[in-house]
Fold:
Amino acid sequence: MSHFFIWGFFNSAFLLGFGILLQLSDRFCARSPGVKCTRKKLPRTSSSYDSKRRRLEKIEAENLLHRAFSVFLFNSKYELLLQQRSATKVTFPLVWTNTCCSHPLYRESELIEENVLGVRNAAQRKLLDELGIPAEDVPVDQFTPLGRILYKAPSDGKWGEHELDYLLFTVREVNMKPNPDEVADVKYVNREQLKELLRKADAGEEGLKLSPWFRLVVDNFLFKWWDHLEKGTLEEVRDMKTIHKLT
Structure:
């Protein structure tokens, strides 16, 4: 038996076993240097294992790109649910942002490219993990993928984000039990209340800060998409072919 075959067999077995370990939770992905997220290369669609510490440290020098998603959840009054990230977050602690932001894991259910199903599965999982929203409250077929943005944002000179971010809208009435390890606070806002938050963030009032990806979406898409959401015409603005490079 060829030693190349033996090496390949054990290498494959190792990767399979390692992949199973990664399925436990992605909570440690933001806190532990040994846990793996998925990394995206453009224009190819394949993902690979990567350490978040390596990916984020000195992001300008590393220049590593990974997949992410941002959920925008509205209630039946079309108010947007915002969260304030916990103080223990590695990147952008205590900033206000959209409903949920995270990364697909390297697991079969979250790598499905067709109909953006893998990302939608990841969004459902993370809404439970961060906000305690049960899966039955946010069925995956109720997420509408609207577009993708490519952005890069350092956090504190050492950590940061460099993401291909999938933007998902959904309108649901949900039960919540926020996880204090992930979320410091939550609130629903209408358009005018969000504009006031933007004003305060711009003025530096009350120490209020917004995440860079949320601000990019707000400045480029959110209010237009919000209008289409209320009109029931989201399909008119849905564009999953274009990657909008915003930084």
Observations:
- Residues 78 and 230 are 7 Å apart (CA to CA).
- The beta strands are 36-40, 47-51, 66-74, 80-85, 96-97, 100-102, 144-154, 160-171, 183-189, 243-245.
- The first strand starts at residue 36 and ends at 40.
- The chain has six helices and ten strands.
